[in-house]
Structure formats: C-alpha cells, structure tokens
Amino acid sequence: MCYTQNRFNALLSACVLSLIATAGWSQSLTWLGVLPNGLYSYAYDVSADGTVVVGRADNAAGQGRAFRWTACGGMQDLGTLGSGGSHAYGVSANGSVVVGGAGGIAFRWTASGGMQSLGSLGGQSGAHGVSPDGSVVVGGTHNSAGWWRAFRWTASGGMQDLGTLGGNLSEAWGVSADGSVVVGWAENAQGQRRAFRWTASGGMQNLGTLGGTWSEAYAVSANGAVVVGWAANAAGQGRAFRWTASGGMQNLGTLGSSGSAAFGVSADGSVVVGGAGGIAFRWTASRGMENLNTTYASLLTNGSQLREARAISPDGRYIVGRGYNAATGRTEAFLLDTRCTLNGDVNGDGVVDDADLLIVLFNFGSRCR
C-alpha cells in the first residue's frame, strides 16, 4: 500500500514537473472557416466560455446562412424558416440558444426545437440580441402600420413594441443580463436617429449624440448601466462611444481613420470592442483604443488582419468578429482568446499545479461532443 501510494505521488510530481517545464503562453487566434464550398463568414456573438460562436456564412449556392460554431463540431448551418437566407446575431451565455433572422422573420434556435419563428407585429422582423439565459429576445419588426419598431420578446408576453422617441422608426440591438434594459436606436420627432436605453418603468431614454445629428446603441453591460455604440460628432464623423448615466456619452476616438463604431462590451462595462477604419479594436480606460492587429501581431500570419470586432465574452477574455485570413485568401469569422495563461493551467488560476493534473486525470478519456 505504501509502495503504491509513493509510486503514485512520484508519478504525480513527475507529471506536474513535466507540465511546468513545457509551460508557455496560450493566447490563441482561431479562424472559423466557412460552410462547405462557401466564400466568407462573419461572427457576431460568442458564448460566455468562448466555446460557441454564431454568425453568418454563405453556402455552396451563395446563400447566406446562420451558423453555430463549436470547436468540436465546426460550423453548423442552422438552416432557414423555409425560404430566403438567414443570419445569427446573438447567443445565450451557455451557447444553447441562438437568435437572428431567416426569410425576413425573427427566430430563436435550440438544438431540441430547431429554428422557431418569433413572428412579427405586422410584417417582417429580425432578432439581434438575447439575454444570457435565452429568455428575452430583442430586435426589430414591422408594426401594423408598416413602421419598423424595436421589440422585446418573451415566451409569456410575446413581442412588445417599444415605441420611438417621437419619430416613426426604432430598432433594438442589446439587452441586459436580466432582460430589463434594452438598447438600440430610435427616431426623434425630426426623423434623426438617436441611441436609446429602454426600461419598463422609464420607457425609452434618448442618450444624445457627440455633437452631431445621429447616434445608435449596439450593446449594454450586464447591469444595464453602460451602453456602447456609435454617434456623430460636430463634424459629422462617426465615433465609437461609451455611455453612463453619470458621465454621459464618451467619445472613444479612432485609430487614425475618420470613423469608428463600438459593437460589444464586457459584463462590467470596462472593455469595449468594435471597428475603426477597417481595423478591429479593443478599448479600456487605462489603454485607450488598441489596434488588435498590433497587440496580437504574433498570432497573425503574414498578411492576415482582424478587421472588425463584433462581440466580447462577459469576462472580456474572448473576442469575435471578421477578418482577412491570408492562408485561405478570404474573409472569415475569428475567435480570439486574449487570456495569458500557462499551457497546463487547466483551471486558469495562473499556476500549473496538482489541481490542474487532477482535473486532467478525472477527465481522462472524455471526448468532445
């Protein structure tokens, strides 16, 4: 018994030492490819743990299709609702619920139920965002008068028209973790688009502009306090913004080009991602706007480029979007893992130790499903 235990301890220590000896940094960039015989793919959202990515890719016939990608299964065509193309814009935190539009109708997809229509309020519709638990969906729909309106959908309440800011049109793009805060854009009485923040108690709040005549919101932090998007400055140039109730609308700048737009924000509101002049960026208060191609140059093969970041995981670790993959010579969806962790650090605590080895041993023989 003592011999067996000592032998196991020696083996355990040897394995740990081996892991430590071969440790290295594990930041990674994954090009997600395309559907069979397709030409392009775009990524629009990512699950909390980075294992599921959703977006749009063309099929062999050149038709746009909503996709759900996993490392195990690759890129899955989610189909349509009978006709036309489809696209996926949002995914739940665990990756099990996907939302988007198919044939001009908003859908909610699950593995068990497939692609289910959410209907509309009078014509076409499209879903753009979903709460982390998959229960609240937001987007845009025609109402009975034919105007395009922001909606909030739940299984119990159906599709709710969120109204406008005095004009005719509106569209929702993002929703808070509990589904109570919705953001997007809406026309004012002058027909100008304005970023909005909606709650059931306060209705639709105009978030203003950066001195210009229009703005649009695309994402919101988990607690609904931080909103990001793009707005015109006094010169009429589009700028990425970050809004808070206390600080108002903050111009996040550019990367030397004339325009920028923010599309995603971390759960705590501290990290913002988007595009600036065809370059993917990440913004933080401490570093400002970073060119992801510069920060992660070591992950890019010669000629490849990250052109637009569309979403970021709640913890700020995973970023998805579209870029140019020089190896294939086409536009492809990408998944960027930004965490600096040691190879072998299975639990992500910054140390390669016995705990990591035990996780590996207890899961030895497991397969991807």
Radius of gyration, in Å, reads 22 Å
Helix count, DSSP H or I runs of 4 or more residues: 3
CATH architecture of the largest domain: 7 Propeller
The overall pLDDT average reads: 91
What composes the largest sheet?
Answer: 4 strands, antiparallel
- Strand percentage: over 45%
Bulk shape:
globular
Number of domains: 2
Strand order of the largest sheet: 1-28-27-26
Give the helix proportion (percent range): under 10%
Q: What this model shows, in words?
A:
The chain is mainly β. The chain folds into two domains: 1-26 and 351-364; 28-339, YVTN repeat-like/Quinoprotein amine dehydrogenase (Methylamine Dehydrogenase, Chain H, 7 Propeller). The protein contains three helices and 28 strands. The protein has helices spanning 2-21, 292-295, 354-362; strands at 28-31, 41-46, 52-58, 64-70, 74-77, 86-91, 98-102, 105-110, 114-119, 125-130, 137-142, 148-154, 158-161, 166-175, 182-188, 193-199, 203-206, 211-220, 227-233, 238-244, 248-251, 261-265, 272-275, 280-284, 288-291, 305-312, 318-325, 330-337. The strands form seven sheets. Strands 1-28-27-26 form a four-stranded antiparallel sheet, with no helix packed on it. The protein has a four-stranded antiparallel sheet with strand order 2-3-4-5, with no helix packed on it. A hairpin with a 6-residue loop joins strand 22 (261-265) and strand 23. The chain starts with a helix and ends in a 7-residue tail after the last helix. 46% of the residues are buried.
